[in-house]
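Ticket #4471: structure export looks truncated?
Reporter: QA, pipeline team
Priority: medium

Steps to reproduce: submit the single chain below to the structure queue and open the exported record.
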Amino acid sequence: MVAMLALAGCAGSEEDTGSGDSTEEGICETADGDGPKVGLAYDVGGVGDQSFNDSAYAGLTQVVEDVDGTCEEVEANAGESDADREERLRLLADGGFNPIIAVGFVYSPAVDVVAAEYPEVSFAVVDGYSEAKNAANLTFAANEGSFLVGVAAALKSEAKNVGFLGGVDGPLIQAFEAGYVAGVEAVDPNIKIQVQYLSQADPVDGFENPAGGKTASTGMYDNGADVIFHAAGKSGLGLFEAVVEAGEGNWAIGVDSDQYLTVDEEQKPYILTSMLKRIDTSVIEFVTAFDEGKAPTGFVTYDLASGGVDYSTSGGNIDDITDQIDEYKQKIIDGEIEVPTEPK
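Actual output as written to the record:
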């Protein structure tokens, strides 16, 4: 058991640069405080996905220092079952880690089982739907943030043709699609919107498939799109390759983290903006609350009003339209615009 934890923890030995290429020691190799022992279980893609796993790691890095704690990271493998995820969570619980954070909705059934076995341990699931009494579901109004980048796409599209690349075709990613489409249509209902999903059910094909992401994105650019927004995890790296090949006048929109800061230099000029989903903030707030004896349970939602979702301005490519985007943002916060969570 100890050997398995040690091996899995090696995946977090890289400094979070977004590229996963650094050889510097990570926070879990250097932290040695007397505070909470935090366990973090990644979704497929792991550290280096330049998306939601990296955002979770960024939050872990900060909060472990803030609470003077220690931590352990464990990676997911392709083709896993709920039983595999349960065993990973048990390894952390048996290792004395508390709280334990699982990154990705796919962990929800496993948390239901394991949390019942360890009622003294506090669990959290990013994007989760766990019903365990000692678990928190850290959820995000991704539809609201996606609405804002949809506005950006519509305002910047010269072709009046934009695209959406989704990972797995299910309620979680459909909320991104719904918000994005609503944002585009709020600006111009006549803009053509192409939608492509990489998988109907398989998280590996959906979220850890850069080749598939590139193929699907290239198809949309070839069909006239000049702006594509992805909600596909590591598969979105294929979008960034495709937009460079599509050439000047085409744009890509990142997700979860500010992906302008993590892509290759040749890709930076093509990153219009990113839909920010502050998984780092949710990790920080959950662990901080645990340290203060106030770990939440049930559903905790991060929306535009709380700063849990937003859009990025790195690169300056939307400097000319931020005032217009912010007008829509305020209308959402004020309740003047209700953003859908499901596609039409």
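Status: closed, not a bug. The export was complete when the record was re-opened. Leaving a note from the reviewer for reference: The longest helix spans residues 171-187.
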